[in-house]
Amino acid sequence: MAALRQYVGVWRLPGGRILLSVGILARLGIGMTPLALLLLVQQTTGSYSAAGLNAGVYAVAGATVSPIAGRLADRIGPAPILLATSVLHPLALIGLVLATSLPWIFAASAIAGATYPPLTAAIRRGWNNMTAAGSGQHHLRGAALAAETSLFELVFVLGPLLVSAFVVITHRPATAILAAAFATFVGTAWISRLPVMRRWHRHESEHAARGLGPLTAGGFPALMICVVALGTAFGAAGVIVPAYAGHHGGGDGLGGVLLGIWGVGSAIGGIWFGTRQPAMALARQFAWLLGAVAVSFLILTLMPSPLYLGMALVLGGVTIAPALTVGNTLVGRLAPAAMLNEAYTWTVTVSVGGSAAGGAIAGAIVDRPGGLPWAFVFAGSVLLVAALVAAVPHGPIARADQRAEERRLAVEPV
């Protein structure tokens, strides 16, 4: 019952129920648009090569512009940025659907990627603001970020399913893109009107981000190394798991199912973890959780069939959302308050970069004879390195986290 009360407390925070529910609707495009875009361009051009290149254009444009949008949100508040991009992104997707030649498709995809609303950063900053030290709700921060991280997994489960449904019913991937545009517009505009987005505290100009912004904050670069490692492993899994399914005669459909149940395991682990309040320092928690995710990848090398792999993915997935939850909490603690939106957008940017690199490297390993188990070893090894970075007793993450804890206690003594 105590665990349930924490989530009830999160739900009752001002704007909490909207962030948890509409936040999923608003971000369905993250799970829908890349797949629908791939199918649309392939249908239009007849080329998977062009479709894959266009998907890269969309992802790179978003990853490149995201920190800029985050810095603007830090300076003028998230509400105007969310409201503007809630209109610009759907318009770009509509232009993409109407485009008939490959150059125009690439241009529209780049604009659509660049104008995707910085929703995840704004929502996570919103949770940080609502549970700030001294607010009387700081004890709910862990549960709030765990709920956010776990429910966010639904985007990656529901998104591809919705695309499949639209394509089966209409035989046109464009309908899925238009549905994603509608969900993004409605959800983002709704969230932008929340008081937590509109009540923006202007920081002194000397605290505003300049140059590399939060990347110069103590412990933040080391934390980004760990985030890159997670992105690399997840990007690798997106290639390895479907390849494993194909190797065992299951095809792409089985690969999607296996990745989906991996996400279910992650959501379960995240919801459970949100009810815990470990006494261990966050940096040590992060190190142990990264190590657990690494071990879960290494265990996959021993699975003899898709059935056993699926069970291992569910069990291993339980470690993922807790690791992401602690990582997101550390972002909120290590980054200066005046740079928090930008800090969260950097996690998106480096994750996308890591995912692209992980997928490419894993693909090269899988293509080699007997390479499938070694691809799992590659992903697990990257995470073990990240765990060691986080585990250094007096390393940059541990020192920065200790300073953050001292600042919190100065505001909200135990």
Automatic annotation (TrEMBL):
InterPro entries, per the entry: MFS (IPR011701), MFS_trans_sf (IPR036259)
GO molecular function: transmembrane transporter activity
Top-level taxonomic group: Bacteria
Keywords from the UniProt entry: Membrane, Transmembrane, Transmembrane helix
Residue ranges of the TM segments: 18-41, 47-69, 81-98, 104-123, 144-169, 175-196, 217-241, 253-274, 286-303, 309-331, 343-366, 372-393
Pfam families cross-referenced by the UniProt entry: MFS_1 (PF07690)
SUPFAM superfamilies the record matches: MFS general substrate transporter (SSF103473)
PANTHER family from the UniProt entry: MAJOR FACILITATOR SUPERFAMILY (MFS) PROFILE DOMAIN-CONTAINING PROTEIN, PTHR23542
Name the UniProt record assigns to this protein: MFS transporter
Organism: Paractinoplanes tereljensis
